[in-house]
DNA sequence: TGACATCTATAGGATACAACTATGGATATC
DNA sequence: GATATCCATAGTTGTATCCTATAGATGTCA
């Protein structure tokens, strides 16, 4: 067991998907696969149940995850113990409010561990060096570097009658009170989907929306990653497959800040393949 | 930075000596050397000052050591999280009372992390599967597997007049009160060395002896490793070079307990060289 | 139903890393 | 002056890890 394996484990735990974890770790999928297999052998316990779409953590994985995170964090802390940077570059990132927080934090890790960067996170509509947003919010003069795509799901109170169904249709939703996440870029669309003008409640942030759902006020349609973290909320698929593409938006007209160049390079590199090394080793002709 | 490097670092910190650290890690000295160099480069700080005899940790190393230990311990804990052993073999080790505690704990690590072993530590004169003792205490029917050799040094109160000298002679010691560590196998010898019959105080354990020294009662002659850990005690070499060989004693007449076989094998293997792999890779003739 | 996409596991080959041996230079010890 | 101890460097080799490619299973959609 080494720290590399722990990082892979944490990524799989977060993504619930070996392939996606491979992308966030910038390695190929088999690397993750064998690492997890080895880890399971060493610990003498199964960590993930493999099924058709992705993997599910076992109880052991839950337990192990807490410890693994501590070790990873402490290792990162140790690395930067003595790097008291005299001059830190300010880097401002605009984040849309509907982002999956743990996933985003994990994505930004390469930036946060660099002690020569002072990271500042602001709203998606403020001045920033780059923005992490849904593709639908992309401005005219912006490049888009895709990060992940997310489906929208229905978040219901655990005791809601609709939890009996595996998948919800527009007609189902029409009969029950809904919560309008007015900060979401697809808010209007969901209004039409549920065939209504008025909502049971309006929430201005994901936290409020989730709290209203948990309190039994109504149903909310939210990005998968947002709903995932809450234990007292039931998640159901919706029949109409709404997805959003989340990515990094960079102004095309303004040259990229130095601090971001490596980062964006890596992100672009992983798009088609997860390779770690340059695609072709240099060979003189 | 990976856990392997942290282990090497901890070993060097403990031993104050790359070569000795290499032995305790069962690797060769250059492996330790390069690992420390790399670690220093990665952290951007010098960790050890190399000098003629061994190395001395810098302030950075002190700081880093605390963190490194935590990470190492947590990693070991993580590894054995799910290894709830149904049946643990009892293993009893006899330890002489004058052992350097951190060093001994580090040595026994391979046994303590094995969750199929329940380690019991007893006095050196009790019934045990093996004993860690000074060579001078070796019984007739015992094998001796050398672990390390230690010089004896003088432990003085920090404000003692003799701290002005770098090295103490028998004549120096004769003029000042001394503490008799009656539990030590070399106790009588020191009595002769200091040319006296009576002592200022008698201590039955290292803890008491060190406390008496710190309190200014007198000087004690103790194994190097014992004195090292105490910040409020000054250490000086003594001119007469008394050493002791510490090792593992196994009854020759009784076959070695299974749990110990690997361990002793490793210890013997490292005696002449620190190699990790078999000395010669197998090649068919 | 068949073409296609998605996800995990395995096989085979390339490469980087960490181990080893051997040796050199510097400093103590006898 | 011979010997021992200690750390650093050079060169070689074995192993671990990564990659690509592909198989097998399942789900999606025309």
Span between N and C termini of chain A? 42 Å
- CATH topology assignment of the domain at 149-243 in chain A: D-Maltodextrin-Binding Protein, domain 2
- Overall structural class of chain A, as computed from helix and strand content, comes to alpha/beta
Total count of helical runs of at least 4 residues of chain A:
10
Query: Per DSSP, what share of the residues of chain A sits in E-state strands of 2 or more residues?
Result: 15-25%
Overall shape of chain A: it is globular
> Which consecutive residue ranges of chain A, at least 5 long each, have pLDDT under 50?
271-285
> Mind telling me the CATH superfamily name of the domain at 149-243 in chain A?
Periplasmic binding protein-like II
Mean pLDDT of chain A: 81
CATH class of the domain at 149-243 in chain A: Alpha Beta
**Quaternary organisation:** homodimer
Please give the largest β-sheet of chain A: 8 strands, mixed
Describe this structure in words.
The structure is a homodimer of 285-residue chains. Chain A has 285 residues and is of the alpha/beta class. In chain A, 39% of the residues lie in helices and 23% in strands. Chain A is built from ten helices and twelve strands. Chain A has helices spanning 3-15, 18-25, 29-43, 59-79, 101-112, 170-174, 187-193, 206-214, 224-228, 258-272; strands spanning 48-50, 55-57, 89-95, 117-123, 130-134, 142-156, 167-168, 179-181, 201-203, 220-223, 234-238, 243-251. The structure holds a DNA duplex (30 and 30 nucleotides).
């Amino acid at each position: 067991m080494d720290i590399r394996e722990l990082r892979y484990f944490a990524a799989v735990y977060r993504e619930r998907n070996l392939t996606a974890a491979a992308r966030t770790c910038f390695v190929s999928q088999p690397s993750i696969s064998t690492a997890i297999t080895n880890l399971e052998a060493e610990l003498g316990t199964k960590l993930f149940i493999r099924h058709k779409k992705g993997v599910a953590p076992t109880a052991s994985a839950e337990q192990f995850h807490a410890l693994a995170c501590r070790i990873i964090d402490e290792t990162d802390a140790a690395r930067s113990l003595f790097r008291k940077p005299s001059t830190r570059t300010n880097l401002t990132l605009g984040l849309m409010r509907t982002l999956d927080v743990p996933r985003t934090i994990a994505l930004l890790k390469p930036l946060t561990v660099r002690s020569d960067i002072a990271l500042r996170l602001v709203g998606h509509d403020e001045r920033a060096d780059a923005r992490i947003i849904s593709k639908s919010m992309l401005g005219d003069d912006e490049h888009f570097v895709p990060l992940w795509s997310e489906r929208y799901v229905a978040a219901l109170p655990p005791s809601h009658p609709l939890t009996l169904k595996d998948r919800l249709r527009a007609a189902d939703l029409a009969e029950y009170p809904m919560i309008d996440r007015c900060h979401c870029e697809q808010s209007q669309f969901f209004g039409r989907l549920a065939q209504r003008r008025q909502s049971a409640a309006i929430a201005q942030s994901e936290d409020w929306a989730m709290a209203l759902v948990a309190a039994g006020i109504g149903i909310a349609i939210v990005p998968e990653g947002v709903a995932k973290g809450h234990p007292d909320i039931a998640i159901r698929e919706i029949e109409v497959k709404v997805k959003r593409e989340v990515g990094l938006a960079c102004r095309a007209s303004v040259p990229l800040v130095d601090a971001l160049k490596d980062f964006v390079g890596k992100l672009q590199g992983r798009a088609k393949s997860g390779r770690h090394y340059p695609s072709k080793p240099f060979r003189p002709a």
